[in-house]
Each structure stands twice: as C-alpha cells, then as structure tokens.
Amino acid sequence: MNASSDSEILLTLVLVALSIGLLLILTPSPQQRSSWQEKIINAPDGEVLTAAISHLQDLGYAIDTIDRDSGFVKTQYAGRGQLQGGAGLVLNILVGEARYAATVQVRTEGAGASRVRINLIAEQWSEGSLFRTGHWSQDPLAYSKADYDRFFSELRAKLGLVGMFMERRFLEAILLS
Predict the structure, then answer these.
(1) Least confident interval from 57-61, 79-83, 161-165
(2) β-pairing, 135-138 with 78-79?
C-alpha cells in the first residue's frame, strides 16, 4: 500500500465516524420527542378538539377519523404538494416523494384544562432494488421541537388563548414581584 491510499482510507473512516456522530446528535430520542408532543392547554377538551380539527384542516390535511368520545383525531396521509403547494412539488422532484400525517389525542386534565398530544408523521419513499419493490419508511429527522412548538402555538391562537396566556403571565409577574 502507498501513503495516498492509506490517507484516503483514513479520511473515509473519519467521514463515516463524523456522519454517524452527527446523525446521533440530530436524531431525537423517543423521550425527547415525547416531551415535544404533549402540552397542557387551558381550555375544555371539547373546544380543544374542535380547534385541533380546524387547525389540521387549515394546514391542508384531510381528516380520516374523529372519535369525540376518546378525543382522538387522525388525518389521512398528505403529499408535499397538498401541504406546501408548488414548493412541495419541486421538493418531490429534487429529493424524492414524501407524505405526512398527524394524530391528535385530547384528554381532560382538570377543571377547564386539557392534555393534548400531537404526533406528526413523515414518511419518505425509498426506491426498491432489483429484487424488491419500493416502500415508505418513517423519517425521524423530518420534524423538530420547533415544528411541535409551532403547532401548539397556532392551536392556542386558534383557541384565542395567546392574548390570555400573555396577559396571565404578565399578571403573575406583577403579583410575584
């Protein structure tokens, strides 16, 4: 072996190690994702469920299942084009086809409060090989904490709680000082 091929092998190993490390850092653990997915909202569960359904429809999802008794909502899968318009269609061409869905669970948490859990699902199409057809696989990097925070923020806005939340924080700050 010569020095050139040894250095190429070493560089390849370093790049693989860095890639694996970066993937481990960027991929949230199930515990991290769970903490992003659930929040308490100060509104009755029926109002929260109705607002969540409306919000999902505003985002472009078609609703597949609504069970008001259990507080469960499930959307149908939606493609990038349906959710993002023309930009989504361009992304399909550049990086491949993807589809998205969401589930929401709303439960009573106490007097006038609800526990809301949202699960945002993203799947990427993987082409098949010579002997196997393609398949959908979940993309764990598709959603971040910011995506879940944005969903809950927009849900609170839909409920008209943004002003009430800020006003309550302001009053608490004054009373505690």
Answers:
(1) 161-165
(2) unpaired
150 domain-assigned? yes
pTM of full prediction above 0.85: no
pLDDT at 167 over 60: no
Of the CA atoms within 13 Å of residue 49, those in its CB half-sphere come to 17
Question: 101 to each of 42, 77, 97, 98, how far by Cα in Å?
Answer: 25, 5, 14, 11
Query: Please, are residues 136 and 124 in contact by the beta-carbon 8 Å criterion?
Result: yes
Contact 120, 102 (CB under 8 A): yes
pLDDT digits (tens, 9 = 90+) for 12-25: 877 777 766 665 56
CATH of the domain at 82: 3.30.310.80
Q: How many H-runs (helices) and E-runs (strands) does the chain carry?
A: 7, 7
Query: Mean of the pLDDT values across residues 53-74?
Result: 95
Q: Token digits for 98?
A: 């993807």
Query: 3-state class of 73 per DSSP?
Result: strand
Q: Please indicate, yes or no, if residue 12 is contained in any of the structural domains.
A: no
